[in-house]
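FW: tagging you since you asked about this chain on Friday. Here's the raw sequence from the shared folder, copied in full. Didn't touch anything.
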Amino acid sequence: MTFTDDNVDNYSDYLYHVTAIYTTPDGESKPSNEILLTPKENMLPPTKLESQLIAGNNIVLTWIAPESNYRGFRVSRNGINISDILDEPIFIDQSVPA
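HL: got it, structure written out here
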């Protein structure tokens, strides 16, 4: 038997088990073993993040984009989103404190 769960989000945990339903006698079995899954398909991170300091406090970030299925990039500094980029894998941070 096969079941496909199409209602899941990437990087969310899902715990599954299965029971058998009987008609004679009427009832349900104990649960099977449980499995924990975390979907991560098609969500590869950018790689080879590099930086270069230019013109005072400006920092240029470059990286290699995943091969497909991404719609843009989010740049964070110290855990805070500072820019969403929808095109090229390059960002110039002109707001770095001196």
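FW: The two ends are 62 Å apart (CA to CA).
HL: agreed, and The longest strand covers residues 47-54.
FW: great, closing this out.
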